Amino acid sequence: MSAIRVIEDRSYVQYHLEISREKTRDAAIAIIPGAPERAALIASHLENPVKIGSHRGLDSWIGKLGGLDILVTNTGMGGPTLEIVVQELIQLGVRNFLRIGTTGAIQDYIPVGSLIVTEAAVRLDGTSDHYAPPCYPAAGDLEMSLALKKAADKLGQPCFSGLTASSATFFPGQERYDSAGGYVRRDIQGSLEEWRSLNVLNFEMEAASLFTICRTMGLRAACICAAVANRTKSEAVVRDIIRRSEEAATAVGLAMLKEVFAR
Question: Is residue 79 a contact partner of residue 126, using CB atoms and an 8 Å limit?
Answer without folding.
Answer: yes
